[in-house]
Amino acid sequence: MKNTHPMVYFCLGVGAGIAAGLLWAPDSGEDTRKRLQSKAREGGKSVQRAALSVRDSLQDAVDRGAKSVEKGLDQAEAAVAAGHKAATSAINTAAKAVSQAF
After folding, report:
1. H or E segment and range at residue 101
2. Please, what is the Cα angle at 96 between 93 and 99, to 5 degrees?
3. pTM value?
4. Rounded to 5 degrees, what angle do the CA atoms 71, 76, 82 make?
5. Are 32 and 25 in contact (CB under 8 A)?
6. Closest CA to 89 of 81, 78, 99, 100
7. Around Cβ 12, how many Cβ atoms within 10 Å?
8. Each residue of 19-60: pLDDT tens digit?
9. How far apart are CA 63 and CA 60, in angstroms?
10. Running DSSP on this structure, what letter comes out for residue 28?
11. CB distance 35 to 27 below 8 Å
């Protein structure tokens, strides 16, 4: 079981806790069902909040990544433009030197 994901152990622990709670529950079956339904709703809301938080975090990461890529593209574009300008200047200087030599 050394390759078993820790979440499996967590789920087993939750299941054992629920089973133990039901075995030693001091309330009637109806009260226990109502309490379980209430806790299940609370758990569902908690999972929903966590999922929204994860979604927001992922969206933030995607946005930061997009900005980083955009910045990189802008820098690459500026470097290409500077290279083009330098090459054009070098060609013009060389052409002028050749024309003056002859």
Report:
1. helix 29-101
2. 150
3. 0.49
4. 125
5. yes
6. 81
7. 11
8. 887 777 676 778 878 888 998 899 889 999 999 999 999 999
9. 5
10. -
11. yes
